[in-house]
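Give me the fold.
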Amino acid sequence: MKHDKQAVDEIRAILFREHGTKDFDVYSRVANLRRNEENNQMYDMTFMICGIISRRVGGESWVMNIQLASFNERCGKL
């Protein structure tokens, strides 16, 4: 990873020396991959929290529906 930054800096220096002005951009794929990995961790956490909330709310409503059906069934027998 250290060599990646050094290579990017050397490429920038060569291009600047040849062009005489900074009319270019140099991107590092390793830096992009690292940034994407950080974003993916954020998305994973967000989706996990949404899933936990959905599971919790869905589970509670499912239990309540079963209890209500059981209650209605018992009332019908009386």
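The mean pLDDT is 82.
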